[in-house]
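Assess this one:
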Amino acid sequence: MPFLPPEALADEASIAEASARAITLARCGEPRAALNLALQARRQAQSLETMRGELEALNAAAVVHLIRGDAVAAVATAIDARDLARRAADRSLLAQSVVSLQMSAFILGAGADVHAALRECTREALEHGDIMVEARARIALGVVLGDGGHFDAAAYEFDIALRLAARMPAAGSPARITANIANLHRKRATALFAGGYEARGLRECAEAIAKAHEACRLAAQEGAVSVEIDALAISGCAHEQRGEPARARLLLRASIALGRAARCPPAIVWVLCELGRMSLAASDVEEARAAFAEALELARELRPSRKIATACFGLADVEARIGRPEGASRWRERGAEEAAAFEIAALQTRRQIG
């Protein structure tokens, strides 16, 4: 997408519109164009000396970075937005920056108390009737709670967020929220199987698959390619959980093919790692090697990333499977180094946020 002519960003309203458009572009699988637009909107806001316009653009850029999978850039941008919002005394845009900052920190494992910060954003949003902030905070809370095993609480947040998004489409993507709900069912299934509750786990798998299909349908309507990539992979993981590995790998391959076609490489890193793991379990060593190698290549572009170490350890498992202990040892050493580097980066990020 080419840059807009200066006259297209002539005032605060047009800058806000361009910022919203940037987020839409990122959801539709054009993250590079989205980031260019958000950055252009910020520069134009600075030239016009409109603080609110610059805030809108910064918040949009932080969201785009999150969609791109670049949590470090999202942290830096959200911090800029937070500091500017404090100077402007704009509570709504401040809360938006805090949600982006907390989600970025959570992804990087650098959040001291993400849950409490997001709860406070939700409380303030309710107090001021700010649907946009409430929806974003509840979506983020749902992810955090689900990862912590608080499945019922996470489902509650997602359900409210979905209703809010139906009232105000700009507040959130119904497709993305539905994909999050599908993934929550998958997480719950994992916990149930681990606890020996097979029948309940299978029911959760079926729910995950059904919600993932719904998310794909909604994503097609919204043009949200990144959501469709995730939803296909979530469905694949749920099929594996209920004992259908061949179907699972087909869905993961479809997810990866879509990501390549849409030129959304960050979106498929985790999918490639899952495909590598499943392929190795199926003794398809060459597919496993190719998947982990591609995941490593893509994850390095998003450094720091946990997936770099995951891919290294996956390649170590491949080497071990084919009887190359020296190669396996080298990859495990590298994986340990990358994991340590990630922890250092997370610590530095935590200090930045403070």
